[in-house]
Amino acid sequence: MNRQSKTIYLNFTRLNLPLTLWIAFLIAISLIITSIIIIISYADPSLRGQLVALALLLPLIGMALTFLFLKRQLKRFSHKVTTEAWELMLPEEQKQRLNAQVHELASALNLKGEDLSNLKAAYVLAEDLALRQIEQEKQVSLKRHVRIADAQFDAVFFDKDYSTLVEIAFLVTPSISQKKIDTVLAKVQRALKKFQKIRSDRKVKLLFIIVTQMEPEAEQQLKKSLAERFSKSTVDVDIRLLDFEALQRIYTED
Q1: 55: left (phi > 0), else alpha (psi -120 to 50), else beta?
Q2: Sequence-separated (6 or more) residues with CB below 8 Å from residue 164
Q3: What residues does 212 pair with on adjacent strands?
Q4: Cβ distance 157 to 238 under 8 Å?
Q5: pLDDT tens for each residue of the chain, 254 residues long
Q6: Calpha distance 24→53 (Å, rounded)
Q7: Beta strands across the sheet bearing 203-212
Q8: By the 8 A CB rule, do 119 and 102 touch?
Q9: Beta bridge partners of residue 210, listed in sequence order
Q10: Where do the DSSP E strands lie in the chain?
Q11: Who's near 220: CB < 8 A, 6+ residues apart?
């Protein structure tokens, strides 16, 4: 029987920071009061003023440094947890997803039989080249074919402020079904809930990449249509149109 490893999320971001600081504050006050009592009782009268000042100042400095350290560590742990929120899709899942995407495109193009094999090869190439282009532009390393909760994405990457979900579509006409848009947005919402569950401090963004073989006028029409359809999204959406032939010239042709 095949066993799949399970990820255990250590959620350091759930630490109650205000409560921790209150406890530290009370301990510091107790130490300050104890130190002042000892100084008044046993210290040389000529040195009491300086010693009391030190007794007040040093714990406050220590508290400030501790607060900054805790804040930095919590941010690091939060970023680490965010990057562990995704899992690689299994090969069978990747194959099923690819076949579904290719058959959807084939239906739009009225292709059957042997043409499906050529279309599948073109789709795989288009996806790979598009992701390479994004890696070059963003200067990031993409995690390809991932699952966040039960939502599947072509890729995901993380930077200082955002967890970016990448979805790719291949279009040859300036139209995309509302069902496709709704499906993508529903997936984003499920992923967003996952990030909220682990209390990630990064925002979530969708990078929707359209690989096309269209004239500039048709691309502009498509851009306008997509902007309107994604206008009600609850997360930021970045729409990119990439020309398939241009990508091949950049990455495959001599």
Answers
A1: alpha
A2: 156, 157, 158, 204, 205, 206, 207, 238
A3: 171, 243
A4: no
A5: 343 333 333 343 444 455 666 676 777 777 778 777 777 776 677 776 777 777 677 767 776 776 676 666 555 544 454 556 788 999 999 999 999 999 888 888 888 777 888 899 999 999 999 999 999 999 999 999 999 989 999 999 988 788 899 999 998 888 888 888 999 999 999 999 888 887 667 789 999 999 998 888 888 888 888 888 888 888 999 999 999 999 999 999 87
A6: 20
A7: 86-88, 143-148, 151-158, 162-171, 203-212, 236-243
A8: yes
A9: 169, 241
A10: 86-88, 143-148, 151-158, 162-171, 203-212, 236-243
A11: none
Residue with tokens 């291949």: 170
- The 8-class DSSP code of residue 89 comes to P
